[in-house]
Amino acid sequence: MPSEPNATIDAAPRPPIAPMIAVICGAFILSQFYRTTVAVLAPELTRSLSLTPESLGLLTGAFFIASAAMQIPVGLLLDRYGPRRVLPVLTFTAAVGVVIFATAEAAPMLVLGQFVIGAGCSGIFMGGLVLVARWFPKDRFATLSSVLLAISVGGNLLTGTPLALAAEAFGWRGAILATAGLLLLVSGLTLLLVRDAPPGHGWHDRKPETLREAVRAVGTILARRDIRGILAMAFVTYASMVTIRGLWAGPYLADIHGLDTVNRGHVLFAMSLATLVGSLIYGPLDRRFDTRKGVVLSGGLAVGAVLLTLSAVPDPGLPVVIGLFCLLAFCGPYYVILLAHGRAFFADHLVGRAMSTMNFFTFAGVGVTQVLTGVVVGRFGEGAGGAHPIAAYRAVFIFLAVVLLAALTLYASSRDKPPSDETA
To answer: Is 424 contained in some domain?
Structure first.
């Protein structure tokens, strides 16, 4: 009798899954690193390259806009060729982007570097999710995805205190450029160690699709009414957290509380630790309470409440701000449950495209949100020493909260897909 498509790792012979997941985690740590570097380096980048708030928003948004544009093609490639061949090409591309970014002498080249890095990092998390979906049972998807995410938060930790110290010692260019070699190492290890699916998995016996069939399958995913609320939620879920952690937290701490590079790094490091803990806690909640929709609604409402509090407190002291930022980071990783909710609607042969479709909305949401918030901050002008007023940041918090609550309203009508449906 042939193996089931979701055979457990214990039932699968060699090669072992651990080295594969370790390589993917290393790649995703680097991807997370590049997503959030600007939060620490924003004041230095602004001074050295004369960046405006709009330029900062475009700079961070470029990574996610490129990632969004790549999601559908990456999903097609992962389903057709597998992570082993796709990911080395992508990580090499990201290394090229790092070199462009680190050597940029003007804002356009800086943005181009971020765009190329975003394109190169576009399939890393998706490749990991595809491996999890193929090597483990369906009902473990949310838990294992959250573990993968928690490990990858190491990239966010690196953009806290370690990046701040490296930038102080070697300059921001040297600190960033050194990571290109790590990407090349990960590219080679992926080709050497990763295997696309366990022996006996249906992926090995699949009939290759034509391009027309593959594109038609993506159209089928987008046409499904029962996931529209999930896609709307995907557009704002990650954006509502990473727009703060990856962009405006650093400038806020510099402008409002006068923190230097290293002390900003300490706060962002604490936020990353909170994200790591939150990721591990969220992972098993869908199985514990047998609901994915309920966990997502609860997490979204918690994040919305924190954003509204940040906007409403008239003169928050630094300890209050740090506490609220860390609470936001802790509550934010509920998007791993949203991914599991969306993945549950699709068969295994569509898992790459289904996840990439959700990631398209996720990354597009981050890119659009970061560009728009850059415009919002820019409308308030600058005060003494080029600092932006607290009203500008409050406007950002309100904007994020309103958009998130609107998406929650749409998502509330979605059909739940509890884990018990998959284990029955």
So the answer is: no
Per-position DSSP letters for 66-102, written without gaps between them = HHHHHHHHHHHHHHHH-HHHHHHHHHHHHHHHHHHHH
DSSP state of 306: H
Q: Residue 403 falls within a domain, yes or no?
A: yes
d(CA 400, CA 411) in angstroms, rounded, equals 16
Q: Report yes or no: 11 and 199 within 8 Å, Cβ to Cβ.
A: no
- Beta carbons within 10 angstroms of residue 22's beta carbon: 13
| Rounded Cα gap, residues 154 and 36, in angstroms | 12
Quick: pLDDT tens for 86-144.
999 999 999 999 999 999 998 999 999 999 999 999 988 888 888 887 888 777 777 77
288-309 per-position pLDDT tens digit: 999 999 999 999 999 999 999 9
Query: How many Cβ atoms are within 10 Å of 220's Cβ, its own excluded?
Result: 12
pTM of the predicted structure, to 2 decimals: 0.77
Please report whether residue 4 resides in a domain.
Answer: no
Alpha-carbon separation of residue 143 from 12, 236, 285, 354 (angstroms):
20, 22, 8, 18
Q: Is residue 141 within 8 Å of residue 343, measured between CB atoms?
A: yes
